[in-house]
Every structure is written in C-alpha cells, then in structure tokens.
C-alpha cells in the first residue's frame, strides 16, 4: 500500500527536512520519497496544519492484562495509544501476576507483533513489586525488558534501591522509580494544602516526594548508574533534579501531561476522575513544572494512563482508586496546558524517551521504516467518551475543549487514522 502525506510540516531534528513542509510517500511501511512533488498513492492524507514527527513514545502506561483485563487489555491499550499518537508504549509491570519472568516478557512481545503499537515491557525490580528481594534482572534484560521499575509501588528501602543501581550497571539499564514516601502519604486523598483542609480530606504532602528525590539522588551519587524519576509533581523536586543534572549525575525524569492542567484549587471537589497520584498540586508547583519543562530539567511528558473500571471509581472519594485514562488525550492536554513551544513538546514525546530507554532514533529519511505520528497542533476538538478506544472511562477531560488533534500513526506498515 502506498500512502502519501501531503504538504506535511516535519518535526524531526535529526532529519534534513526538519521544520520543512514536504510531501512524504510511504510504500509497504518504508519512506520512499520526501520532497515537493505530488506522488500517486492508494491513500492520501491531507489536512489543514498537517504535521508529522517520529512516532511518539510513552514511558508510563498501565494495562490490566493479564489478570485485570476488565480495566484494559493489550489490544484496547494499543488502540488507545495509536489514537493518541503513540507508536511505542512502556508498560508498567503491576499486572496479576507481576511482570518478573522471561515468560511474561515474551508474552507481551508476542502479543505486540500484530498490533499497530510496539508494546515495550518493563520488568519489576523486586519480586512481586514488594520492595524486598531483587528479581533476576540480567535474565529479564536479555529477554527484552527495556527498563526496570516497581511501577505503582515506589521503592521504599534505601538498601534495595542501592543494590538495584549497582546490579544494573553491567548491562547499562535504567532504574525507574516514582518518588513517594508511603508512610507520609498514607490515607492521603489530594494535595496537602488549604483546599484539602477546607474539604476535610487527608492531604498528600509535597514533602513525601521531595524527601524521596533527595534520598534517591544521594544514593545515585554513591552507587552510580542511571536513575529516572517517574511523575514528578513538585517545585522542590524539580529544583533538586536540576542541580543533580548540573552536577553530572545520570538522572532523568518525566511528568504526566495532565499535571498542570488543574491544581488542587481548580479540581472538581469529590469528583473521583480528578483523583490521581501524585495529586494535582499548587499553582507554584505547576509554574515550577512549566519552567522545568522549558529549561530541559524535565525530559519527557507521559500519559500516566491508569484505567479504572466503574466499580473502582464510582465510590466515595476516599474509597475510589487513583488514576485517569490519558493515552488518547495526552498530547492535546499537554499542548493545551503546558505552554511549551511545539518543538520542545515533540522532543519530550520522541527524542528524549528513546534516549532514556536506549532505543534507536526514528528518523524521517528515505529508506527508513516509517514510524510516524500525524497531528494538527492548532486544531481544536472535544474529547468524547463515545469515541474512546479504552475499556475504561475514568477521565476528567471528556467534554472539554482541547487544542491539538492527533490525526493518526504509521508504524509496522500499519496506517491508523482517527475519524
């Protein structure tokens, strides 16, 4: 099949056509022409403001398969990811059972083959993600695990983190940890501040994130290795990571694309679709995150896709599970709320995630396999639950006007176009 992308503006710093408007011809999944000429094709994609970049990579998404398929399975996650512009997605290991064996890694890889998205398995650092005994990380790495994390279970023990950093160095793997001191966040429901006091809800203090970041950075200084912080949310955490980078430590971090869309003062009180972890924090924290994104302290923007079924969300606020779905809205939410130049945002969805995971670059060049995301950054649209590809519908963005529309993806020879 021949696909022509007509008059598309290219966002790919590694390409000689970066920021140029060109026609792009893809034949049987390979880029065969980039230039001004009109080419015959079986399918022509043309749209006002059409842009194309290397396929987007998500560093943080949850699927329920195996064990919790009613929330999300691998196929529904892949369809949601493609609709959101992602061609590669790193899966958290917190399934039932936990991803901690070669069989589990191979299961994900085999299921991924026929899907329009490459599913990247992350393996647990500790057995059952319980924070105690290390998994067989060398075997898991050789089987195809691209990163190691306990995912939704932040590492609490300094001794475990230290050993893991040392253990991973011979095979140059990245350790991902969500910085949260669980004893400080116990029973917390939202950001600790005036709003939580006014609403009578137990707060989740910024301190719980900040002390963990400082501790983990100190361990990184001692042990060496590569450390990635997932879902940064506070100004003090951003500043600590900024200083660590200036010091030369191998540290990176990401932020959820929705993190600055709301604050603790602007969420709908008691609406469980706003219940996320880390929580929506203060205006000052949101401003610090925007600054960290702009100056490069924060490397990547992620979906933090966490599907929850109705039974997990349609409860009192303190009983409901944390998390929202965001694969399909990640780009639009970030483009609407983060106030970033488009080039910078695309870098945090493409180049930086691949660098963090050690994946090869995707380059828009004749002869290269087409791994592309098609989007219109100025198009305004409204997210609708009826159009969602996810099995779960826990999102505060349904019915909201967003700027930046994903038009489709081309990956593994498959063209996926949004309606």
TrEMBL record:
<dbReference type="GO" id="GO:0046872">
    <property type="term" value="F:metal ion binding"/>
</dbReference>
<protein>
    <submittedName>
        <fullName>Dihydroorotase</fullName>
    </submittedName>
</protein>
<dbReference type="GO" id="GO:0004151">
    <property type="term" value="F:dihydroorotase activity"/>
</dbReference>
<keyword id="KW-0665">Pyrimidine biosynthesis</keyword>
<dbReference type="GO" id="GO:0006221">
    <property type="term" value="P:pyrimidine nucleotide biosynthetic process"/>
</dbReference>
<feature type="domain" description="Dihydroorotase catalytic">
    <location>
        <begin position="54"/>
        <end position="234"/>
    </location>
</feature>
<dbReference type="InterPro" id="IPR050138">
    <property type="entry name" value="DHOase/Allantoinase_Hydrolase"/>
</dbReference>
<dbReference type="Pfam" id="PF12890">
    <property type="entry name" value="DHOase"/>
</dbReference>
<dbReference type="InterPro" id="IPR032466">
    <property type="entry name" value="Metal_Hydrolase"/>
</dbReference>
<dbReference type="GO" id="GO:0005737">
    <property type="term" value="C:cytoplasm"/>
</dbReference>
<dbReference type="InterPro" id="IPR011059">
    <property type="entry name" value="Metal-dep_hydrolase_composite"/>
</dbReference>
<dbReference type="GO" id="GO:0004038">
    <property type="term" value="F:allantoinase activity"/>
</dbReference>
<dbReference type="InterPro" id="IPR024403">
    <property type="entry name" value="DHOase_cat"/>
</dbReference>
<dbReference type="InterPro" id="IPR004722">
    <property type="entry name" value="DHOase"/>
</dbReference>
<dbReference type="GO" id="GO:0006145">
    <property type="term" value="P:purine nucleobase catabolic process"/>
</dbReference>
């Amino acid at each position: 099949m021949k696909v022509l992308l007509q008059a598309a503006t290219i966002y790919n710093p590694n390409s000689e056509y970066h920021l140029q408007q060109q026609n792009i011809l893809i034949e049987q999944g390979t880029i065969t022409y980039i230039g001004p000429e009109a080419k015959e094709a079986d399918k022509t994609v043309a749209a006002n403001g059409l842009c194309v970049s290397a396929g987007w990579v998500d560093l943080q998404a949850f699927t329920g398969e195996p064990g919790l398929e009613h929330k999300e399975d691998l196929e529904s996650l892949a369809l949601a990811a493609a609709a959101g512009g992602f061609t590669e997605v790193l899966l958290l290991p917190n399934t039932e059972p936990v991803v901690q064996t070669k069989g589990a890694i191979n299961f994900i890889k085999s299921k991924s083959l026929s899907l329009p998205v490459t599913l990247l398995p992350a393996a647990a650092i500790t057995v059952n993600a319980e924070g105690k005994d290390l998994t067989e990380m060398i075997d898991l790495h050789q089987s195809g695990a691209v990163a190691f994390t306990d995912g939704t279970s932040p590492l609490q023990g300094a001794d475990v983190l230290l050993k893991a950093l040392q253990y991973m160095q011979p095979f140059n793997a990245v350790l991902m940890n969500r910085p949260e001191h669980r004893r400080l966040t116990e029973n917390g429901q939202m950001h600790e501040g005036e709003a939580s006091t006014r609403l009578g809800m137990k707060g989740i203090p910024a301190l719980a994130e900040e002390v963990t970041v400082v501790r983990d950075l100190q361990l990184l200084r001692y042990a060496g290795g590569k450390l990635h912080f997932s879902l940064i949310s506070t100004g003090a955490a951003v500043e600590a990571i900024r200083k660590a980078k200036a010091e030369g430590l191998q540290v990176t971090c990401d932020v959820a694309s929705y993190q600055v869309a709301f604050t603790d003062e602007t969420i709908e009180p008691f609406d469980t679709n706003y219940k996320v972890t880390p929580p929506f924090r203060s205006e000052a924290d949101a401003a610090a995150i925007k600054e960290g994104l702009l100056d490069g302290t924060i490397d990547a923007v992620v979906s933090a896709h966490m599907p929850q079924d109705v039974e997990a969300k349609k409860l009192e606020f303190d009983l409901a599970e944390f998390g929202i779905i965001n694969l399909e809205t990640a780009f639009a939410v970030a483009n609407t709320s983060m106030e970033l130049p488009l080039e910078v945002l695309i870098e945090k969805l493409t180049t930086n995630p691949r660098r963090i995971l050690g994946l090869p670059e995707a380059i828009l060049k004749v002869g290269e396999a087409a791994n592309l995301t098609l989007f219109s950054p100025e198009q305004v649209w409204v997210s609708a639950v009826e159009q969602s590809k996810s099995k779960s519908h826990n999102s505060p963005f349904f019915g909201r006007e967003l700027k930046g529309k994903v038009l489709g993806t081309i990956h593994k020879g498959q063209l996926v176009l949004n309606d």
